[in-house]
Specification:
Helix content: under 10%
Radius of gyration: 17 Å
Oligomer: single chain
Number of strands: 19
Number of helices: 1
Strand content: over 45%
Distance between the termini: 44 Å
Length: about 200
């Protein structure tokens, strides 16, 4: 694991002092963010693929930026705070998990193969902006919002729900909320019809 403590001289990922034991992250790591030091930080190490990216229960509200994408098969937010990725995120596995207690905002978009499925669990919201992804979504708990889609960038999301559901639709934003009893339903969400 590479664990962020934000104790370095700047907010950059390449600064060894920002990581517990000076271990800057590499692709074999599960990336973990803790505490509230340097919550506005920058991936200055280029495109990276991690085993997972997570925020511990004591994490402040992080905003992660950079000019290269981050990829992982697992994304977790165990804190009550909103965690924001202001850089492109990539679902890197055929079954990518997103577990949220507090909200997760993919402000830089979320992409991945159309053959991939994202499994969303936890009571928090997952908000995806400006995505170019047309894979599947399994919503187990919480809410999922999509905004900034265009018909040319995303033709459809295939969503499956493990409980009964209601939809709230407004311009540029689709939200799904779960309530109550079990069911297993597949719904095709064609954004080119919904978004003007």
């Amino acid at each position: 694991d590479a664990v962020w403590n934000g104790q370095g001289s700047d907010e950059k990922w390449s600064t060894a002092g920002n990581w517990v034991d000076g271990g800057v992250p590499n692709s074999i790591d599960w990336l973990k963010f803790t505490g509230s030091a340097n919550v506005f930080n920058t991936n200055d190490m280029g495109e990276m693929v991690f085993q997972g990216i997570g925020f511990e229960d004591d994490s402040g509200p992080f905003v992660i930026s950079g000019d290269a994408s981050l990829a992982a098969p697992a994304w977790t937010n165990l804190s009550e705070k909103i965690q924001t990725f202001a850089l492109p995120a990539v679902a890197s596995s055929s079954r990518t998990t997103v577990h949220t207690i507090g909200d997760f905002v993919f402000d830089g978009g979320l992409s991945g193969s159309s053959a991939y499925e994202i499994v969303k669990s936890g009571r928090g919201k997952m908000v995806v902006k400006s995505a170019s992804w047309s894979g599947r979504l399994l919503l187990e708990e919480g809410e999922v919002g999509f905004s900034g889609f265009s018909s040319s960038s995303c033709s459809a999301i295939i969503a499956r729900f493990s409980s009964s559901i209601t939809f709230a639709l407004s311009k540029y934003f689709l939200k799904a909320s779960l309530f109550g009893s079990d069911m297993n339903e597949t719904v095709f969400l064609y954004f080119e019809y919904f978004i003007q």
